[in-house]
């Protein structure tokens, strides 16, 4: 069997290694502790991407202790046997949504990135907010915007925050339209993330899709996301350069229709 090439991992902060996939500029983050154990946050996207991630981890002699899914969307809940038989943590609400939506997640994964091990898809273990059971402190902080039970991961020692699908330079805020008040939930989540950035003196933010941000760029994205959400609830046109992408434009139009119909 041909060996899969190891993916490039970029160290964006001490012990925080990021691989970026071609599809949707999706990031997968490897959190490495001093004892060469690691936790994989949102490993993605295609089966080949996962094998390449497994090869990159093996190349560094790292032992995978677990995974984290920041939220229950298909591209954040895939897994491969090559990554090991370990728990994959998510908030209890995210686990419940993944269980409820499992058929949809399988269908979406199959449509967008065929060939995943369906038996492993969305097999998540509930972890209540707070430190992950791992030797370096990493905090799972639930905010519930974008998807049920969605969370960010803060690594205080590295001054890093993994934002899941928040704070992207490529994607406007994408709402969980099943939420009773998705815009307020999202704005509250942005406030919480900003608090975390200050509380932990965060220097690097890694979004689930897009490029990493330093402190100044993080504050710029927070402002851009708040401006987008403010415009969404108004009556006028929404001006945001991220809407140049046709897929985001169509998601945006869906959001406008849903939010303004309330
Ligand atoms: Zn998502």
TrEMBL record:
It comes from the Bacteria. Signal peptide: none annotated. Pfam families: Lactamase_B. InterPro entries: Metallo-B-lactamas, NDM-1-like, RibonucZ/Hydroxyglut_hydro. Residues 26-209 form the Metallo-beta-lactamase domain. This is Lactamase. It comes from Cellulomonas carbonis T26.
């Amino acid at each position: 069997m041909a060996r899969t090439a190891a993916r490039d991992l970029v160290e964006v902060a001490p012990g925080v290694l990021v691989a970026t996939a071609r599809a949707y500029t999706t990031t997968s983050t490897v959190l490495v502790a001093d004892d060469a154990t690691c936790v994989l946050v949102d490993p993605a996207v295609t089966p080949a991407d996962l094998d390449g991630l497994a090869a990159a981890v093996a190349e560094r002699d790292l032992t995978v202790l677990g995974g984290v899914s920041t939220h229950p969307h298909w591209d954040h809940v895939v897994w491969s046997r090559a990554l090991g038989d370990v728990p994959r943590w998510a908030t209890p609400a995210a686990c419940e949504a993944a269980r409820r939506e499992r058929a949809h997640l399988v269908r979406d994964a199959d449509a967008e990135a065929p060939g995943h091990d369906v038996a492993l898809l969305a097999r998540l273990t509930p972890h209540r907010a707070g430190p992950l059971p791992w030797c370096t402190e990493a905090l799972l902080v639930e905010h519930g915007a974008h998807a049920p039970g969605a969370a960010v991961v803060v690594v205080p020692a590295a001054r890093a925050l993994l934002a899941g699908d928040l704070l992207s330079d490529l994607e406007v805020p994408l709402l969980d339209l099943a939420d009773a008040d998705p815009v307020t939930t999202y704005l509250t989540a942005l406030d919480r993330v900003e608090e975390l950035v200050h509380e932990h003196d965060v220097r690097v933010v890694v979004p689930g899709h897009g490029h990493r941000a330093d402190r100044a760029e993080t504050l710029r994205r927070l402002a851009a996301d708040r401006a987008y959400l403010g415009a969404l609830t108004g009556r006028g046109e929404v001006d945001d350069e991220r809407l140049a992408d046709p897929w985001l434009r169509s998601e945006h139009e869906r959001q406008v229709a849903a939010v303004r119909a309330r």
